[in-house]
Amino acid sequence: MLLKWQVQRLLHQTRHSLAAPSRNPRAAVVLGRLLGIAFIITFLTGLYSHFIQEPLPWMVFLTRPIWLYQVSQGIHITAGILCFPLIFAKLYTIFPELFQTPPVRSFPHFLERASITVFVASSLVQITIGLLNTYQWYALFPFPFRQTHYALSFVIIGSLAIHIALKLPVIAQYWRKRDALTADGHLVEHATEPEPQRQDELQRLTGKVQNAGITGRIFEWIDRSPTLPPQTSRRGFFATVAVASAALVTLTAGQSFRVFDATNLFGARKNDTGPQGLPVNRTAKRAKVLESATAPDWQLTVSNGASTKSFSYEELRAMPQHEVVLPIACVEGWSQYATWKGPRLKELIATVDGDPSSTVRITSLEQGSSYAQTTMGPEFVRDDLTLVALDLEGEPLDIDHGYPARMIAPARPGVLQTKWLSTLEVLS
Ligand SMILES: Nc1nc2c(c(=O)[nH]1)N[C@H]1C(S)=C(S)[C@@H](COP(=O)(O)O)O[C@H]1N2
Ligand SMILES: [Mo]
User: Fold this and answer.
1) How close is the Cα of 371 to the center of ligand 1, in Å?
2) Residue environment code for 50-82, b if the CB has 16+ CB neighbours within 10 A, otherwise e
3) Quick one: which ligand is closest to 399's CA?
4) CA 199, CA 190: separation in Å to the nearest integer?
5) How many Å apart are CA 246 and CA 260, to the nearest integer?
6) If you take atom 15 of ligand 1, which residue's CA is the nearest one?
7) Confidence of residue 196 (pLDDT cuts 50, 70, 90)
8) Whose CA is nearest to atom 1 of ligand 1?
9) 333 CB near ligand 1 (under 6 Å)
10) Which of 33, 120, 185, 187 has its CB surrounded by the most CB atoms within 10 Å?
């Protein structure tokens, strides 16, 4: 019993000593709102990216605007990066609440604390593995990145919904600034101020342990130590959060948005680098296609059931060539526009009587990679801008960009823009 009061008293003291002007419910609600928006945006853009790569049978995707995926994924990565300063700021504002006394008051209170623990832990894991993935450090993960990232997003959104539902009274109370003011026009400063009744109660209870050995002396010491004046003002705190967020965006968003090109110091990719001025993810050497891609007898095989036709490089070049300007938009957030040229996919499958509104399976010369085979739905196959590209910026593709031939289609994620083509199969 004595120990219980001692622990409670220690928690109480800790909580009290952590009070600061920026640690108040209004700040927590303001940051919570921003964080909530950032999470919902990353969740929705994440779902889009997931399902365009792994569509359910009934799903149809937009092929216009051509930058739809590029912008959606750019927002996903940028908003995800923004979650770092916001989540730490939010944790700062509620930090004293971690030392609540008693730690668990009731079953709803237990639910509230458990859901927020799950939420914080999974969010931190989520944004960390997401960030590592944009730097292609996923080799470090002992789990498949995309499935884990996808599953965690539901844990996060679920625990966020519980958290919001349980906190609704506080959220409603402090939603507008006016409501956060006291009767005499001051901001409600300390969320951490214990209610007077509880304070009395604690004093009464802890009085019993005042002289109980070493802990008693520790409490005496805490009681006598002067209360530190607040270290950070409310305004200073919000300015710090704003500066950190703005800095992160300016220093990384250049990988996704050209406006930030000049300040792209930490983004995982830079524009205009790599062969033919375009970044490369996996080189021909790493994909082990150096030999097969440069073989003089290379052919692109196009099939529709029993009907099969093989095209040599020269035969592909002899077909009507179309020029398109389309972005490569990687799931990792970086993207860049380029000029591509080659025959249209639908004109190629027409040579084996494939309907333009078919689903097509695309296979690369590359073996044993998850990018080696992709499936393209009818909305992309029939599109005029969907090419089997032979040229990039007016020259034959560099081998690292998929020579002899690669897919390029509008509003598709980079992972589905298969390089080093080998076969095209009309499925239905
Ligand atoms: N066969 C094959 N195609 C591939 C890849 C790959 O690893 N193997 N990487 C994909 C990814 S993740 C992206 S973002 C783009 C990158 O294109 P680039 O390397 O030509 O810039 O190609 C895609 N096509
Ligand atoms: Mo990618």
Assistant:
1) 8
2) bebeeeeeeeeeebeebbbbbbbbbbbbbbbbb
3) 1
4) 15
5) 12
6) 414
7) very low
8) 419
9) no
10) 120
373 phi and psi, to 5 degrees? -140, 130
- Split at pLDDT 50, 70, 90, the class of 263 is confident
**Single pTM value for the model:** 0.88
Q: Which atom of ligand 1 is nearest to the CA of 286?
A: 7
Pocket flag, ligand 1, residue 12 (CB < 6 Å): no
Give the pLDDT score at 197.
Answer: 47
Note the Cα 235 to chain centre separation in Å: 29
CB count in 10 Å sphere of residue 143: 10
Residue nearest atom 18 in ligand 1 by C-alpha distance: 280
In CATH, the number for domain 284-426 is 3.90.420.10
Evaluate the CA torsion angle 79, 167, 6, 18 in order and state its sign: positive
Residues near 334 by beta carbon (within 8 Å), at least 6 away in sequence: 255, 256, 267, 268, 269, 271, 279
Spans of all domains in the chain: 2-252, 284-426
The pick from 69, 134, 282 for probing ligand 1's pocket by mutation, whose C-beta has the most ligand atoms within 8 angstroms, reads: 282
Mean pLDDT of 29-41: 95
Measured in Å, residue 338 CA sits from the centre of ligand 1 at: 14
> Which ligand 1 atom is nearest residue 332's CA?
14
| Helix segments in 18-57, DSSP class H | 25-53
